[in-house]
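User: quick one, sequence for these tokens?
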């Protein structure tokens, strides 16, 4: 058996020489410093895997405190407003941006989308994501939606169940 020699990569030199500030000294990617240009380009691709990976990376970047990436995800929701499959992926990656503004945006999506067999999974994804937010950001709106006659009986029950889950941890 032939043993191959692998040269140890000097990450410090690599980071400095090639201007890669998002590479940690351990060799991991620091999402808080990663440039947004690459996932932006891939999020506009027709390639489903590139799109999904770009949204995941943007979600990870927003988790690390990058507001710009979350705001770009909001823009993708507007851009792909009629592509339910892509909307589900985008919303799933907003799970990490737990702000009042994000909650309001997602509740606005629930109001915008007409509930149907086609959109049911998307609406459920939004509800699931909102249920991961701190209850003080979403509880009042879930209760308000559960009492709003604009929504069907089933939808009002979903909102009520979400509010109860947040309030009582059921």
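Assistant:
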């Amino acid at each position: 058996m032939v043993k191959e020699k692998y040269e140890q990569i000097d990450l410090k030199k690599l980071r400095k020489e090639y201007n890669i500030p998002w590479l940690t000294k351990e060799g991991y990617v620091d999402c808080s410093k990663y440039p947004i240009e690459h996932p932006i380009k891939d999020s506009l691709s027709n390639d489903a895997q590139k799109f999904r990976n770009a949204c995941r990376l943007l979600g990870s970047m927003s988790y690390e405190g990058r507001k710009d990436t979350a705001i770009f995800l909001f823009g993708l929701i507007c851009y792909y407003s009629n592509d339910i499959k892509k909307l589900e992926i985008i919303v799933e990656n907003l799970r990490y941006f737990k702000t009042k503004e994000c909650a309001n945006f997602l509740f606005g999506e629930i109001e915008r989308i007409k509930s149907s067999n086609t959109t049911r999974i998307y609406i459920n994804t939004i509800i699931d994501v909102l249920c991961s937010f701190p209850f003080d950001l979403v509880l009042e709106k879930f209760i308000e939606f559960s009492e709003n006659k604009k929504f069907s009986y089933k939808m009002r029950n979903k909102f009520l169940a979400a509010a109860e889950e947040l309030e009582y941890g059921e």
